[in-house]
């Protein structure tokens, strides 16, 4: 039996990991991770580990999906076979290389060719144990009878080393000197030579770690005496060899991946206007927003951007009211009201997730944290009891099942008025006995009062002493704020906690409401800007700075996704602060000057504009251009169904008799075929106009990124 967990990696950088499932060869993780990808990547990888307390965790196998293939798996639940993990194949990054072939005349009058190898730089090398690596490169000229090797200097603590080192290799010919303008190496000789670059991490006292290699045949200089390009690092040869391996098992994944190109705001005006008019359209089924929800294949993907856009412009409540009235109109049985997966129920569900998120965190997070930290079983279903367990003992208090039973209890209490004391009133008979524990007058009164309050339209007066909203917490490294005894400021691991009132860090994690041991506190109202920090400042990746009324706080996150999430949430919570900065320093103030602009004054005005603007009168952080772009993308994917809906409107308008082919449009809700037809025409016209700038962008991207450039390195497959 194994104690398994799974990690999610962008190339070699771990961004998330699941909980450990103990003593199982078929672990069921059932965890969802949603995140923005803040940088370019080649592979999205999933590693399965066997947890080891005393030694290093054992990597059982991996699933690596190329970025170009993610769209093929998006929205599908798929079993992937685990592949063996070979350290020689775990590579990422690219190398900038220049080759030249020069002609030299030796002292005895013979002519030789000199091969000049200029290794300029690398970019995107992996982190080693969470930190930037200490890379160096070996440069070899390899042929049938030679293997000349040279080595660069070690660059300390960087994933983007600038080598700028030149190496010379001679290719000697025993022919006499002749006065030719160019001496050409014979084809049979040049075909056998190649330059090999190997990247390594300097291990100092331990073994060096292989980072990748590339091989460039010298015959690239056959037509030109100079060659310069970016190359992707490749696995070592023996990391690619196919060998028969044991069955490592498989991993079931459900991946949803989207990639959108957001145009300037003016392009989205017509589509936004048409969608925002939806609540006023009669009937509501003829509105653009309703049609959008009808035709999209994945209803859940469609509803989220629509709800966020309408909510941003205070149009969601009238739209949800209108579609709910349509649901009520079509309901045949009162017991099934809002029980289906309709547009109305999905809109309400997404709205509650967005608006009610803070409320749930304040009311439920401390309790759920306590449940997750406890291993006590509360199973009351006799069928699912483990050997030795007792129902009566479990009523006093694994985690997922505990939360499931709590949700069942809450659902049952919410249906208080419609339930009787008989077992037939319960979906699960075992809940009947459990339910009797709550049949006391005090519980009944409290539940009824709660239900009355949350369903009341009257505005409640706030006490003014509400608890702060917990937003985010986690372990990161921060740079020391004060002076140290030896004069050098170091980085320490701390537990950060952000609420709606303050940002704090502590030595130990704990429940944020109960914590009184903060080492340092920054009130949210004092935050002036939150921005990324250049890697060159401290030779560390994934750094950001919290600029406030005192000295900037420099923080290093564990990965690029975590850094992006912290910057985003800090910007959102402080974006309406007064006196926010309009410019900042992208590098640190070290040894009496700013590294970015060399200004000597610590109070000098920033040299770069801040990235986060300050929108007025905003309650929920929504990028409406991005949401509209997502709606446009979903419209383009659903054009075939939109066309069928248009044809259905034409058929209904022309032929008023019985529908001869109901399968073509019987699933569409079309109350007014003429109005719906006009709306569809408007949608198609707007989508066609938006197609033009998107097509220009695609052509520009494909033509501007020259093969061998940094954006399109040699070795990249599409």
SSE inventory with pairings:
Layout: E1 4-10, E2 13-17, E3 43-50, E4 58-66, H1 70-73, E5 76-81, E6 94-105, E7 110-123, E8 135-143, E9 146-151, E10 162-176, H2 187-190, E11 194-201, E12 209-217, E13 226-232, H3 237-240, E14 250-255, H4 269-276, H5 288-295, H6 299-312, H7 316-330, H8 343-355, H9 357-373, H10 391-394, H11 399-414, H12 430-435, H13 441-454, E15 470-479, E16 491-499, E17 502-506, E18 520-523, E19 527-532, E20 543-548, E21 553-556, H14 560-574, E22 583-584, E23 589-590, E24 593-594, E25 608-609, H15 624-637, H16 639-654, H17 673-704
Antiparallel strand pairs: 1-2, 1-3, 3-4, 5-14, 6-7, 6-13, 7-10, 8-9, 8-11, 11-12, 15-16, 15-21, 16-17, 17-18, 19-20, 20-21, 22-25, 23-24
Helix pairs in contact: 5-6, 6-8, 6-15, 7-8, 9-11, 16-17
Q: What would your notes on this structure say?
A:
The strands form 7 sheets. The chain has a 7-stranded antiparallel beta sheet with strand order 18-17-16-15-21-20-19. The protein is globular. Helix 5 (288-295) runs antiparallel to helix 6, helix 6 packs across helix 8 (343-355) and helix 6 runs antiparallel to helix 15. The protein starts with a strand and ends in a 14-residue tail after the last helix. With 718 residues, the protein is an alpha+beta fold. 28% of the residues lie in helices and 24% in strands. The chain has 17 helices and 25 strands.
